Amino acid sequence: QKTAYEIVMWLEFRRVLFRSNRLVNETTTLEFSLEELKGLPQSYIESLEKSANGNYKLTMSYPHYYPFMQNAQNSDARKKYEYLFNNRGGDANRALLEEAIQLRSDLSHMLGFKNHSEFVLEQRMAKNPTQVRSFLEDLVRQLQPKAKQELQEMVEEKKKELGLQETQIYAWDWRYYENILRKTKYKIGRAHVWTPVTSRSR
Fold first, then answer.
1. How far is Cα 39 from Cα 161, in angstroms, rounded to an integer?
2. Which of 78, 128, 134, 144 would disulfide-bridge 172, Cβ 3.0–4.6 Å?
Protein backbone atom coordinates (compact mmCIF):
# COMPACT_ATOMS: atom_id res chain seq x y z
CA GLN A 1 0.00 0.00 0.00
CA LYS A 2 1.29 3.47 -0.91
CA THR A 3 2.00 6.07 1.78
CA ALA A 4 0.27 9.48 1.71
CA TYR A 5 3.50 11.05 0.47
CA GLU A 6 3.78 8.53 -2.37
CA ILE A 7 0.17 9.19 -3.44
CA VAL A 8 0.79 12.95 -3.50
CA MET A 9 3.89 12.42 -5.66
CA TRP A 10 1.97 10.10 -8.02
CA LEU A 11 -0.79 12.69 -8.34
CA GLU A 12 1.70 15.44 -9.15
CA PHE A 13 3.36 13.26 -11.78
CA ARG A 14 -0.01 12.60 -13.42
CA ARG A 15 -0.89 16.30 -13.35
CA VAL A 16 2.31 17.16 -15.21
CA LEU A 17 1.80 14.33 -17.71
CA PHE A 18 -1.83 15.38 -18.28
CA ARG A 19 -0.74 18.93 -19.03
CA SER A 20 2.04 17.70 -21.29
CA ASN A 21 -0.39 15.59 -23.33
CA ARG A 22 -2.63 18.60 -23.88
CA LEU A 23 0.29 20.81 -24.94
CA VAL A 24 1.46 18.24 -27.46
CA ASN A 25 -2.03 18.12 -28.94
CA GLU A 26 -2.15 21.92 -29.27
CA THR A 27 0.15 21.59 -32.28
CA THR A 28 -2.30 19.21 -33.97
CA THR A 29 -3.75 20.88 -37.05
CA LEU A 30 -7.21 20.77 -38.53
CA GLU A 31 -7.84 21.93 -42.10
CA PHE A 32 -10.77 24.06 -43.24
CA SER A 33 -11.70 25.40 -46.65
CA LEU A 34 -12.17 29.12 -47.26
CA GLU A 35 -15.94 28.52 -47.37
CA GLU A 36 -15.81 26.99 -43.88
CA LEU A 37 -14.05 30.12 -42.63
CA LYS A 38 -16.93 32.37 -43.68
CA GLY A 39 -17.67 34.94 -40.97
CA LEU A 40 -14.11 35.18 -39.69
CA PRO A 41 -12.15 38.46 -39.99
CA GLN A 42 -9.88 38.72 -43.01
CA SER A 43 -6.91 39.41 -40.74
CA TYR A 44 -7.54 36.08 -38.98
CA ILE A 45 -7.71 34.18 -42.27
CA GLU A 46 -4.56 35.81 -43.59
CA SER A 47 -2.66 34.82 -40.44
CA LEU A 48 -3.31 31.10 -41.03
CA GLU A 49 -0.86 28.73 -42.67
CA LYS A 50 -2.15 27.13 -45.87
CA SER A 51 -1.84 23.46 -46.78
CA ALA A 52 -0.67 22.11 -50.14
CA ASN A 53 -4.28 21.65 -51.27
CA GLY A 54 -5.19 25.27 -50.49
CA ASN A 55 -7.02 24.69 -47.20
CA TYR A 56 -6.25 26.64 -44.04
CA LYS A 57 -4.56 25.04 -41.04
CA LEU A 58 -5.86 25.68 -37.53
CA THR A 59 -4.17 24.38 -34.39
CA MET A 60 -5.73 23.54 -31.02
CA SER A 61 -4.33 26.75 -29.51
CA TYR A 62 -6.60 29.34 -27.91
CA PRO A 63 -5.85 32.19 -30.39
CA HIS A 64 -7.13 29.94 -33.19
CA TYR A 65 -9.98 28.28 -31.33
CA TYR A 66 -11.87 31.17 -29.69
CA PRO A 67 -12.19 33.52 -32.70
CA PHE A 68 -13.27 30.56 -34.83
CA MET A 69 -15.99 29.43 -32.41
CA GLN A 70 -17.25 33.01 -32.02
CA ASN A 71 -17.37 33.91 -35.72
CA ALA A 72 -17.44 30.89 -38.04
CA GLN A 73 -20.89 30.63 -39.61
CA ASN A 74 -20.53 26.98 -40.61
CA SER A 75 -22.11 24.87 -37.85
CA ASP A 76 -20.50 21.60 -39.00
CA ALA A 77 -17.06 23.21 -38.99
CA ARG A 78 -17.61 24.53 -35.46
CA LYS A 79 -18.79 21.08 -34.34
CA LYS A 80 -15.69 19.38 -35.76
CA TYR A 81 -13.35 21.92 -34.13
CA GLU A 82 -15.19 21.79 -30.79
CA TYR A 83 -14.88 18.01 -30.61
CA LEU A 84 -11.15 17.91 -31.34
CA PHE A 85 -10.37 20.87 -29.08
CA ASN A 86 -12.15 19.32 -26.10
CA ASN A 87 -10.52 15.95 -26.64
CA ARG A 88 -6.92 17.15 -26.41
CA GLY A 89 -4.93 14.46 -24.69
CA GLY A 90 -7.43 11.81 -25.80
CA ASP A 91 -7.56 8.35 -24.25
CA ALA A 92 -4.23 8.86 -22.47
CA ASN A 93 -5.61 11.75 -20.43
CA ARG A 94 -8.87 9.93 -19.77
CA ALA A 95 -6.85 7.10 -18.20
CA LEU A 96 -4.84 9.60 -16.15
CA LEU A 97 -8.05 11.19 -14.84
CA GLU A 98 -9.44 7.83 -13.79
CA GLU A 99 -6.21 7.03 -11.94
CA ALA A 100 -6.18 10.46 -10.27
CA ILE A 101 -9.77 10.05 -9.05
CA GLN A 102 -8.90 6.72 -7.43
CA LEU A 103 -5.68 8.07 -5.89
CA ARG A 104 -7.50 11.09 -4.45
CA SER A 105 -10.10 8.78 -2.96
CA ASP A 106 -7.38 6.55 -1.44
CA LEU A 107 -5.58 9.55 0.04
CA SER A 108 -8.77 10.97 1.54
CA HIS A 109 -9.68 7.66 3.20
CA MET A 110 -6.13 7.32 4.49
CA LEU A 111 -6.42 10.73 6.18
CA GLY A 112 -9.81 9.94 7.73
CA PHE A 113 -12.20 11.64 5.29
CA LYS A 114 -15.17 10.06 3.49
CA ASN A 115 -14.15 11.44 0.12
CA HIS A 116 -11.91 13.93 -1.67
CA SER A 117 -14.48 16.74 -1.38
CA GLU A 118 -14.49 16.52 2.41
CA PHE A 119 -10.70 16.47 2.50
CA VAL A 120 -10.32 19.59 0.32
CA LEU A 121 -13.19 21.60 1.79
CA GLU A 122 -12.20 21.00 5.41
CA GLN A 123 -9.30 23.40 4.84
CA ARG A 124 -11.51 26.07 3.26
CA MET A 125 -14.27 28.42 4.31
CA ALA A 126 -17.10 26.15 3.12
CA LYS A 127 -15.85 23.34 5.39
CA ASN A 128 -17.98 20.52 3.95
CA PRO A 129 -19.76 19.36 0.75
CA THR A 130 -23.23 19.95 2.25
CA GLN A 131 -22.61 23.70 2.60
CA VAL A 132 -21.16 23.89 -0.92
CA ARG A 133 -24.14 22.01 -2.36
CA SER A 134 -26.56 24.32 -0.55
CA PHE A 135 -24.74 27.40 -1.84
CA LEU A 136 -24.68 26.11 -5.42
CA GLU A 137 -28.35 25.11 -5.38
CA ASP A 138 -29.28 28.59 -4.14
CA LEU A 139 -27.11 30.14 -6.85
CA VAL A 140 -28.79 28.02 -9.52
CA ARG A 141 -32.25 29.11 -8.32
CA GLN A 142 -31.26 32.76 -8.62
CA LEU A 143 -29.50 32.50 -11.98
CA GLN A 144 -31.77 30.02 -13.76
CA PRO A 145 -34.43 32.51 -14.95
CA LYS A 146 -31.78 34.76 -16.55
CA ALA A 147 -29.95 31.77 -18.02
CA LYS A 148 -33.17 30.46 -19.61
CA GLN A 149 -33.89 33.90 -21.07
CA GLU A 150 -30.41 34.16 -22.59
CA LEU A 151 -30.62 30.62 -23.94
CA GLN A 152 -33.93 31.41 -25.61
CA GLU A 153 -32.43 34.53 -27.17
CA MET A 154 -29.70 32.37 -28.69
CA VAL A 155 -32.31 29.92 -30.00
CA GLU A 156 -34.18 32.80 -31.65
CA GLU A 157 -30.97 33.95 -33.35
CA LYS A 158 -30.36 30.41 -34.58
CA LYS A 159 -33.89 30.22 -35.97
CA LYS A 160 -33.34 33.46 -37.86
CA GLU A 161 -30.22 32.04 -39.42
CA LEU A 162 -31.12 28.38 -40.02
CA GLY A 163 -34.90 28.11 -39.81
CA LEU A 164 -37.76 27.65 -37.36
CA GLN A 165 -37.00 23.94 -36.92
CA GLU A 166 -33.91 24.82 -34.85
CA THR A 167 -34.67 24.57 -31.12
CA GLN A 168 -31.35 23.49 -29.57
CA ILE A 169 -28.14 25.31 -28.73
CA TYR A 170 -25.24 22.87 -28.77
CA ALA A 171 -21.76 23.16 -27.27
CA TRP A 172 -20.40 24.35 -30.63
CA ASP A 173 -23.17 26.96 -30.96
CA TRP A 174 -23.24 29.06 -27.84
CA ARG A 175 -20.08 31.13 -28.35
CA TYR A 176 -21.19 31.95 -31.89
CA TYR A 177 -24.72 33.07 -30.98
CA GLU A 178 -23.56 34.79 -27.80
CA ASN A 179 -21.21 36.82 -29.98
CA ILE A 180 -24.06 37.72 -32.34
CA LEU A 181 -26.16 38.93 -29.41
CA ARG A 182 -23.22 40.84 -27.99
CA LYS A 183 -22.88 42.78 -31.23
CA THR A 184 -26.56 43.21 -32.13
CA LYS A 185 -28.43 43.47 -28.84
CA TYR A 186 -25.76 44.84 -26.53
CA LYS A 187 -23.81 46.75 -29.20
CA ILE A 188 -20.45 45.47 -27.99
CA GLY A 189 -17.86 45.14 -30.72
CA ARG A 190 -14.42 43.56 -30.69
CA ALA A 191 -12.82 46.83 -29.60
CA HIS A 192 -14.96 46.89 -26.44
CA VAL A 193 -14.12 43.36 -25.32
CA TRP A 194 -11.19 42.94 -22.98
CA THR A 195 -8.72 40.30 -24.16
CA PRO A 196 -6.50 38.69 -21.47
CA VAL A 197 -2.79 39.11 -21.99
CA THR A 198 -2.37 35.35 -21.58
CA SER A 199 -4.65 34.69 -24.54
CA ARG A 200 -2.78 37.07 -26.80
CA SER A 201 0.58 35.67 -25.82
CA ARG A 202 -0.18 32.00 -26.47
1. 13
2. 78
